[in-house]
Write a sequence for this structure.
């Protein structure tokens, strides 16, 4: 199926005061967003999303009636990264009311599509990540888990007190097709941490060891979108069918 811009319209952003079943009071795990309605779910916050960077599409979906496209232009939402480099981002992040605590096991699933005009470059690019809230802003550390696509290679990194580690890297052509991701995470800064990941039902990560940092906050949150070092080329990515739950069966796409 070819990516198309037809049938695309801008989101009407609507503030919803009640989280309803999306609330995780008492640490309820379940979150669901099919991106079907054209209204941004209150499980997300747009603090790191530039104006007009998000739009709803109904002509290219993984499941259901809709999906979202996130785009990023050069010089938009610019910040200095932890390594001192200029960075650009367009991301959704889990809202404060739905964030989980360190040590709590969770399963995440989402699908993404890179259009045929997506630039394949060596520039650092993150398309999904899990961050631990920090106590000291001067220690804005790397995400404890990150999914990256750099120079045509899909990569998963973990970060902990002893530094960063690549736990998966493989060259693959991902353009113009849906990719289904599932992650199982137990965020513990000690040896009880765990990360497992599947791409299109094939397991690619089975990491056991520290995840996160002992001297940061007892809270994690998920980010979906584009985060990169500065570059001239624009980028866009499409996401569909987000899930958070307690098992592979609960979050993954049923296969016939």
């Amino acid at each position: 199926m070819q990516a198309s811009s037809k049938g695309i319209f801008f989101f009407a952003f609507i503030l919803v005061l009640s989280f309803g079943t999306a609330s995780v009071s008492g640490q309820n795990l379940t979150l669901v967003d099919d991106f079907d309605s054209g209204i941004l779910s209150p499980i997300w916050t747009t603090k790191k999303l530039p104006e007009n960077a998000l739009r709803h599409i109904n002509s290219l979906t993984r499941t259901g009636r809709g999906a979202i496209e996130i785009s990023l232009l050069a010089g938009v939402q610019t910040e200095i990264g932890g390594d001192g480099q200029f960075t650009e981002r367009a991301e959704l992040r889990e809202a404060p009311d739905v964030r989980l605590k360190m040590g709590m096991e969770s399963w995440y699933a989402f699908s993404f599509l890179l259009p045929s005009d997506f630039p394949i470059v060596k520039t650092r690019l993150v398309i999904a990540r899990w961050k631990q809230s920090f106590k000291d802003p001067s220690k804005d550390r790397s995400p404890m888990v990150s999914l990256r696509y750099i120079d045509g290679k899909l990569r998963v990194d973990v970060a902990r007190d002893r530094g960063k580690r690549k736990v998966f890297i493989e060259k693959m052509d991902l353009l113009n097709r849906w990719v289904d991701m599932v992650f199982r995470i137990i965020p513990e800064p000690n040896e009880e941490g765990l990360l497992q990941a599947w791409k299109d039902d094939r397991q690619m990560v089975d990491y056991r060891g520290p995840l996160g940092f002992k001297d940061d906050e007892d809270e994690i949150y998920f980010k979906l979108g584009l985060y990169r070092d500065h570059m001239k080329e624009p980028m866009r990515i499409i996401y569909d069918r987000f899930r958070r739950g307690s098992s592979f069966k609960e979050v993954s796409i049923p296969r016939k």
About this structure: The longest helix spans residues 248-251.
